[in-house]
Write a structure and sequence with these properties.
heterodimer; A: two-stranded antiparallel ribbon; 8 strands
Chain lengths: ~270, ~160
């Protein structure tokens, strides 16, 4: 019989190799003469092994780390942090000075405002079932032609967003508004139309006064603007890089953009 | 640095996923946690130098991702776990062979998340008590008592299943 009772914490520490030398020796000596302590140690050790085995079995089919992420250069991090900082600064400046002082007056801003208005209108109504025939995991892109402008409507199903709304905006120069809905209900709008003259080819992201974020770019004569609200920032960025790539690439080898889409598979946030 | 993080992610992929599973109880969500953890790790400008510190760093990232997400959904279940609960000494009196992976798996599924988490960190990942305490931001004594309660609860559940 042992001279003293050991707490379960002490016996656990012994089994886990966390007991100090003195305590370990004391427990070992006690176990040699006390079948109760020996049984408790044996049960704990068996439980530890079984727990490990159970958890290993459950996690054996862990999903792979996406290939595109593996190639993500670290220098992106500085850019992302910079973009975030810039967004915060912009927000503070806007909040301090009033949005009217920064109100867009150029063609690009006016074009974006028209798209944002469509996005806001679409957000105000219930999203219905997918209304366009681009779904599943097919070619992943549809070509459109609007009054002399051609562009691409990307399939975001790889990023777990379904096409749910399409509207032609004749009043604002034959633009197309496309709405995607994530599985948790967040909405991403894509505004496609004739590019304003001063719209740059590279991605330009900005925070908007209504709390949404927008990003614009051009591909040839076609302008694109992506709009989102309540979407996880990293997810928006990933979807954005996918959109940017796919609209530039068009039909062809879809594999790289599919991978990018899968990387963006985090769920949306719903406020 | 990026190559080291990639290697580390791959090396700990299944354990990170297992830990994520213990937090969420859902394979899809666990996969998403793993993915976001990878994004954050690969986007980080720096990473700890030592292998051991990098391992702890990755698990901390994953845990932070989980907390961020669950805080948003207001369903974080991390408080009050160390008060009360299964405190009586449960000395195993059954057949040892009944403590197997299947029985433990079923019992683990019934544990509160904080208990599943501690079992996962110590038994699956192999963290020491001090590493676990640092990761969870609690004293080592809390790790010991939480682990003790978790194992008692597992044994109790397996023991009662034995009688059914």
């Amino acid at each position: 019989m042992a001279n003293r009772a050991f707490s379960s914490e002490e016996l656990n520490a012994y089994v886990d190799g966390e007991a100090g030398p003195a305590l370990a020796a004391e427990i070992a000596a006690a176990a040699a003469g006390d079948s109760g302590i020996a049984a408790a140690i044996a049960a704990t050790a068996r439980l530890k092994a079984a727990s490990r085995m159970a958890l290993e079995q459950e996690s054996a089919d862990a999903p792979p780390i996406p290939t595109r992420l593996r190639r993500l250069p670290l220098r992106n991090a500085a850019g992302l942090v910079g973009a975030l900082a810039a967004s915060i600064v912009l927000f503070v400046v806007v909040a301090a000075t009033g949005w009217h002082l920064l109100r867009p007056v150029d063609a690009t801003s006016a074009w974006l405002e028209a798209g944002a208005a469509h996005y806001a209108q679409w957000r105000s109504i219930d999203a219905g079932p997918p209304s366009a025939g681009i779904g599943g995991r097919g070619d992943g892109v549809a070509q459109i032609a609007l009054n002399g402008t051609s562009g691409y409507v990307p399939d975001l199903s790889d990023a777990r967003m379904q096409l749910a709304h399409v509207a032609v905006a004749r009043e604002s120069g034959d633009n197309l508004f496309v709405g995607y809905v994530g599985r948790n209900g967040c909405r991403l709008g894509l505004w496609i139309g004739p590019a304003p003259d001063n719209l740059p080819a590279e991605l330009v992201q900005q925070a908007r006064p209504d709390g949404s974020v927008a990003a614009t770019w051009r591909v040839g004569g076609t302008g694109y603007a992506a709009l989102a609200r309540d979407m996880d920032e990293e997810r928006f960025r990933a979807v954005l890089s996918y959109l940017h790539a796919t609209t530039r690439q068009g039909p062809g080898d879809r594999q790289p953009v599919r991978m990018a889409g899968r990387d963006a598979g985090a769920p949306c946030l719903v406020s | 640095v990026a190559a080291r993080i990639e290697d580390e992610l791959e090396h700990h992929r299944t354990r990170l996923f297992g830990y994520a599973l213990s937090l969420t109880g859902d394979r899809d969500e666990a996969g998403e946690l793993l993915q976001e953890c990878a994004v954050r790790a690969l986007s980080a400008p720096t990473a700890p130098e030592s292998e051991q510190a990098r391992r702890a760093w990755l698990f901390r990232i994953l845990r932070n991702v989980w907390i961020d997400r669950y805080r948003r959904r207001r369903v974080v279940e991390l408080v009050g776990i160390d008060e009360g609960g299964c405190d009586e000494d449960v000395l195993w009196s059954g057949e040892s062979h009944l403590i197997d992976a299947i029985a433990v798996r079923q019992a683990l599924a019934k544990l509160p998340v904080a208990y599943r988490e501690i079992v996962s960190l110590v038994d699956l990942v192999g963290f020491s008590y001090s590493e676990t305490a640092e990761l969870l931001g609690v004293p080592i004594g809390t790790v010991m008592s939480r682990l003790s309660r978790a194992r008692k609860a597992l044994l109790k559940d397996i023991g009662s299943s034995q009688g059914r």
